[in-house]
Amino acid sequence: TDTSVANALRRTMIGEVPTIAIDLVDVEVNTSVLNDEFIAHRMGLIPLKSDFAVKMQTVYEAASGSNENNENYSAPQSPTELTFKLHKRCESSQTAGIDVTSNDIEWDQAADGLDPNEVDVKPTTLAKLDESGNPEKGILIVKLRPGQEVKLTCIARKGIGKDHAKWSPVATAVFTFVPDIRIDQALMDTLTEDQRRAWIASCPTQVFELDPTTRRVIVKDPEAYTYDGECIKKAAEMGVPGLVEITPRSDDFVFRVETTGALPPATVVVWALETIEEKLKGTQEDIKKLIM
Questions:
Q1: Per-residue pLDDT tens over the stretch 257-278
Q2: Between vectors from CA 1 to CA 51 and to CA 10, what angle results, nearest 5°?
Q3: Do 60 and 25 meet the contact criterion of CB atoms below 8 Å apart?
Q4: 67: number of CA atoms within 13 Å, CB side?
Q5: N or C: which end of the chain has fewer CB within 10 A?
Q6: What are phi and psi of 176, to 5 degrees?
Q7: 217: three-class secondary structure by DSSP
């Protein structure tokens, strides 16, 4: 493959893998210090577990009567919306105040009429338990003082990052070229073991190591190299320029994908590849029509 294909995969992961996010917020009561729009914006940016997105349809798909991302799509069984509620009040006895977090958001099964065994959509957190073994607080939305209250009804919809960043499943999706690292062992043999260790330590990441048997420097993890050039500079300082030659491979890439928690990284990659495949099929069909 080449850079254009790798970049297409990166862009698809960021902007075209569907997830579920809160899109509409009906504020019934809000006596907190934050205004309605501020809270609504925060609600929209809370990641929701989105494996169920493949069984939903977007409002655009519902309007056109199609669901391109779901071959088993059937209009009556594919919901466009999920309803969530949040209601918290800080009583006068709670003088220290309370935190309203993502864990306080609850799916309203009665409003949607869906099977709870099939729908597993809930706010994500960094970990299930904290260090004490207690449930994690979740993502902070607002702090309430005695007498303050918030009551919201939220509508979550399926969407993609191209429509709004809140639907993007990734926080980071980048790729780098796999480096081709070649050590000049003849020059390396002119260095003492202490000099070799000093040269290995000059690399910020653990790319090289000293072989315990041969006492030679070997490449431990080429993918850990960040193209910082520190080992090359160190070799020049030690009077052995050309000790190592590092060149990027133009057809080999390392992807680093960090998700928001809405989807597992592996799912994001697979769905992105499926999206690219569907686009290529559509292009192929259009070309056939033009030729014929």
A1: 999 999 999 999 999 999 999 9
A2: 35
A3: no
A4: 23
A5: C
A6: -130, 160
A7: strand
